[in-house]
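Researcher: Here's the sequence for the chain we discussed earlier.
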Amino acid sequence: MAKVGFRRRRDQASLLLLFALFALLPITVVFGHRGLAPWLLLASIPAFLRGDYWLKVFGAVFDHMDPRVPFFAAYLSIMVFCGWIFLSGFWSPRGMPSLGLWILGPVLIGGSVVWFAANVNRVWAWRIAVAYAAAIVFGMGVLAFEGVSGGALRAILPPEDPSPDRSRDVIALGRGVTALAPALFPAGIIAAAVWNRWAALAVLGLGVAAAFLNDVSANAVALAAGLAAAIIAFKAPRATVRGLSFLALAALVFAPLAAFLPVEAIFAFGEGWAPESALHRVAIWQAAAERAPEGLPFGFGADYARVWKETAPLIAVPGAAAPLSVIPNHPHNLYLQIWLELGLVGVAAFAGFLYWGAVAFARADLQKPVIAAAAGAFAAVLASTLVETSLWQVWRFAAMGLAAMGVGLAHSLHMNWSRVQ
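Model: Thanks. This is the structure I predict for it:
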């Protein structure tokens, strides 16, 4: 009886914690998108308090320690990747072996959140899924309001933004949209299951509005990619998973070909109409791809780009008020950063994680709407990794964990409620 009472109190506390976190999520993304990482850490507490989590998850890993098992192969690949980041810190000019934890942490914590979301009981599946969707909708709604009002809420609270035209606030709001964008697709699937398709369209429409009202063009690209992938997944779910996996692997393997980008010709073509940030990225990608082979086979080490920036040449970018560094703090392309900083070992380990992770997902017994939610979220993430993501931005990996949590909840909802089968 004592154990039953403890479990009941634990479950009640876990439910209250999750509801409180969902209530805080819109505030987090509006006033401090980097807070999404500690948010995800707190959301993992209900899983870590359950004994069956430790038995089932780590049992699934260590009871099948065979590289031919997709789940174990994916787990092994990401562990090698994180371990290689740790080792590269010893020869990196930054000298930060601890950066390996910046990837390992979100992977383990995100995995616990996904497991919990995918294994909740019938009552919890409904309550938590609705709370999740409501948090994403309210967050996007507040971000849309901020876009219309010019950041009225951020202007009310200190500190004041002294940057020209409050550019820091504008960028921060755009990053808030980035943090929620992948989660928009499982939220839409949950809305369709709980209410109807029109509710799902309203959820997605609100996210699109928030993206366009907050000036980060990469968000619009990410949402467009996610919408296309989700729609295709309803028609061909397995083929969509395979296609997205192929695109991610191709983006990684062929990233060094960016060295052959005709930067001057692109500058001449885009001058006068293309955004300065987009043109700058072309120069960044070429510079990173040209430098990467010099560091092979081991790479220049974790966070090398930040040190390289100090001595990198400047380049005149059309539309920019002053010459810009040919490399900022990171290459604005996740795959180029892996080639540059982690070399062939990092590329091979990450490729293994992408491939075996996709195989494990494809073999899972999932409903078509759940696959569509995952495809939309993955496509949005993929688009973002191509144009702006850095390995060392932990909040971006927390955003992936938040989206994966939504996919897990969508799965639980479809498994536990006959009306959405």
